[in-house]
Specification:
206 residues; alpha+beta; Umud Fragment, subunit A; 2 domains; 8-stranded antiparallel β-sheet; 5-stranded antiparallel β-sheet; 4 helices; globular
Length: 206
């Protein structure tokens, strides 16, 4: 990040000499306005780089929402001022037990399903939140497994892949703690024909 900031400083320095910041009457208001706009865009781009990170989808666990080789921008700032919500697609560091089992610290991408304090359960192909069935339009197919009733602990979440029967997630290894969440997936920027925002899908109890 330091190298990126240094590059931006060099670009800005070359783009507008130091004396241009002095309070003097511009010889060409349009030129000065263009310079100011350019600087604003460069600074804004630099801030976005520090606030976001790119991730590559390596598996089918989030199909049909995310496909193999999709590339995402992940917002690492929002969850410092707000909490994950049901339906958010989050990137997180898996629990230590999973890291030891998989011999990898690679980040996971799943959807937030259960929130702190909620009772969660999976049976008969349906997710239940506080004993109410959850309506989900984004999954590949109903889950074929059973998740016994449990209360999501404070500062923790139940996260599941949209491809329920092909996802290694909370139904296999439990809840994730809040401090392991890296950020929220907000935009798919590759491939070009799938570019678009990743808005939280509506998941409602009946």
């Amino acid at each position: 990040m330091v190298e990126i900031r240094n590059i931006f400083v060099k670009i800005i320095t070359n783009f507008m000499p130091v004396q241009s910041f002095r309070l003097s009457k511009s010889q060409n208001p349009w030129a000065e306005g263009s310079k100011l706009l350019g600087i604003t865009l460069l600074i804004g781009f630099g801030i976005r780089i520090t606030a976001e990170q790119c991730y590559l989808i390596p598996s089918t666990s989030m199909k049909p929402t995310l496909q193999i080789d999709d590339r995402l921008f992940v917002d690492k700032i929002s969850y410092h001022i707000s909490n994950p919500q049901r339906g958010d697609i989050v990137v997180f560091t898996p629990p230590e037990a999973v890291i030891q089992e998989e011999h990898s610290r690679d980040a996971y991408v799943k959807r937030v399903i259960g929130l702190p304090g909620e009772k969660v359960e999976v049976k008969n192909g349906i997710v239940y939140i506080n004993d109410q069935p959850l309506t989900e339009h984004y999954i590949a197919e109903p889950p074929e497994y059973i998740l016994e009733p449990a209360i999501v602990p404070p500062n923790a979440y139940l996260v599941l892949g949209d491809n329920r029967n092909r996802s290694y997630d909370s139904h296999a290894w439990g809840f994730i703690s809040r401090d392991r969440v890296i950020g929220k997936a907000i935009v798919r920027f590759w491939p070009p024909y799938r570019v678009g925002g990743l808005y939280a899908e509506t998941a409602s109890t009946n």
